[in-house]
Amino acid sequence: MSAAAERPAVTRWLAERASAIRLEDLPAAATTVARQCILDWIAVTIPGATEPAVRILAEELLEDGAAPVASLIGLGQKTSMLNAALINGTASHALDFDDVNMAILGHPTVALLPGLLALAEETGATQDDVLTAFVAGYEVVCRTGALMSPGHYNHGFHCTSTVGSVGAAAACARLLGLDAETTAMAYGIAATKASGLKSMFGTMCKPLHAGMAAQNGLIAARLAAKGFTARPDALECAQGLAATQSADFNPQAAMQEASLDFHIAANLFKYHAACYLTHGAIEAGRALRGKSGASSNAIETISIRVPPVADRVCNIAAPSTGLEAKFSLRLTVAMALSGRDTSGIATYTDELTREPELVRLRDLATIEFVEGLPEAKAEVAITVAGGSRYEAVHDAGLPDTDLQRQGQKLERKFDALVGPIMGARAQVLRDGLTGFGGTSAVNEITRLAGGSA
Questions:
Q1: Could you tell me what percent of the chain has a pLDDT over 70?
Q2: What percent of the chain has pLDDT over 90?
Q3: Rounded to whole angstroms, how far apart are CA atoms 103 and 134?
Q4: Which pLDDT does position 37 carry in this prediction?
Q5: Strand, helix or coil for residue 306
Q6: What pLDDT, on the 0 to 100 scale, is given for residue 452?
Q7: What ranges make up the beta strands (E) of 337-429?
Q8: Which of 54, 46, 113, 109 is nearest to 73 (CA)?
Q9: Which one in 61, 227, 287, 354 has a CA-CA gap of 20 to 30 Å to 304?
């Protein structure tokens, strides 16, 4: 028997686990973080909907017309479920301000939620149904990521798009109440549609990847429900997702016995509007500004030590656009050291990349890629005029264990992003999101978030 044939039946195991999840099975931490993910997703999607990539995409997709059944967040329009999944998914990742999980080295909620909400609107699903399906999808996206990590990401695939497609299929399949056999078919359909290249980081295609994942998962679940077939072992089979897209195959990680809050409790929220792998260095830079008390003009050297994974993700040495700035360790550290607001979405402009103060600091910085450092950890050191040296370390890969504090930070983020756009209605929407759950349908939430009167 070949090695491929002996591989454990990961696809079926994941499908059985996800399809069996019930609301009453979910630990309190799982539902709490799920609500926070939904709140944060709406917070970044409403302003993200105004981005050029979303405008172009919406214009193209809406041109042909579609049955208006699903809301476009922040746009005050409705379209088909598949269009909404693609457009809302793209909008939610357009600012690169959405959540992260290191198990997939990517962004879970932007892949899972857009198709799930569109499906929930069309089916009249309750908010409790959405919470349950979201956690099921979160489980699968993280476990599928662990199955192929780190080789899949290191080979150049954007996990948000690829692994996200399978997770989105899991969420939508759970909302439809599909059995394990049909759910496994949905994973196979999603797996054969999965794509997304890291080489597109810094372009409009990166947020498109999130929309692709959401749309892939939604159509996969709906096709499977109608009897469309695929390989029910698509994750582990010969020439399947893992075999073709990764040198690593870790079934023990994918099928690890763990509570239903294990993966979702490790969700990482973003408080800087830049690539997550810059966050450790940004926080270290902010700490150094406070420690040294020196003006940016007094800084003479900057050294940044980060893990090798950052090299092909956020190492644009001399960015020329606001979008590229989000993927530049040198520039984001320069921003932190000069006291710039790295959390403000309006901060990242083309003009910012040409400011003399930032360009000087950017060009002072040297980067060392250190094997063995955790993916989101950074060590930053500066020397200032007179020879004094200061060092700071920050690991952005550690989740907040105080969920109440985390919720308060996310509410402030929501207010900062949504308040200027929605005015007084932002408070009404925030209250609905912080209390998300129960037997009410999601339509009132999506109506408010969509911008409909």
A1: 98
A2: 94
A3: 17
A4: 98
A5: strand
A6: 56
A7: 365-369, 377-384, 389-395
A8: 46
A9: 354
Q: From the centroid of its chain, how far is CA 370?
A: 25
Q: How far apart are CA 437 and CA 127, in angstroms?
A: 5
Nearest of 212, 174, 196 to residue 34 by alpha carbon: 174
Type of residue found at 167: G
The CATH fold of domain 276-395: 60s Ribosomal Protein L30; Chain: A; (3.30.1330)
CATH code of the region 10-269+404-450: 1.10.4100.10
Helix axes 28-48, 81-93, angle to 10 degrees: 90
pLDDT tens profile 205-253: 999 999 999 999 999 999 999 999 999 999 999 999 999 999 999 999 9
Looking up tokens 């950890």, which residue turns up?
377
Write down the number of H helices and E strands in the chain: 19, 6
The domain spans of the chain are 10-269+404-450, 276-395
Residue type, 329: L
Query: Strand pairing of 299-306 and 365-369?
Result: parallel
pLDDT of residue 453 exceeding 50, the answer is no
**What are 301's two structure tokens?**
């050297």
Amino acid, res. 43: A
Q: Which two tokens stand for residue 276?
A: 């997550």
The DSSP call for residue 426 is: H
Gap between the terminal Cα atoms of the chain = 62
Q: If pLDDT is split at 50, 70 and 90, which confidence band does 1 have? A: very low
For the record, the structure tokens of 446 come out as 């999506």
